[in-house]
Amino acid sequence: xxxxxxxxxxxxxxxxxxxxxxxxxxxxxxxxxxxxxxxxxxxxxxxxxxxxxxxxxxxxxxxxxxxxxxxxxxxxxxxxxxxxxxxxxxxxxxxxxxxxxxxxxxxxxxxxxxxxxxxxxxxxxxxxxxxx
Length: 132
Fold this sequence. Notes:
Layout: E1 10-14, E2 18-24, E3 33-40, H1 44-47, H2 59-80, E4 87-91, H3 93-99, H4 105-110, E5 111-116, H5 124-131
Parallel strand pairs: 1-4, 4-5
Antiparallel strand pairs: 1-2, 2-3
Helix pairs in contact: 2-3
């Protein structure tokens, strides 16, 4: 996969329960990732999922949907407050499907690309290789 990831871009690698946030400290031709943060769902029971969930949803499905909402909210807040210029979103297909509809136009304008893969538990070098 070849995706031009501008220098300074945020790269968010997420699954249903956590997200690793990186920045590209290299350039667009040879991305070099530096981990900035590890995000995990907070107050999942208090916050609740976005949208409607089937009545038979398990607790883990509800938690995953809630985390996706929190992740989208964080990305939107960052875009609206000009905390980043470019973002790449890498998440398992289900999480990506939950986050994308919640993204604000400002966030979508900064979205360089997305990838439906769960790379959250891969070592940094493997993520970097997969994105270059």
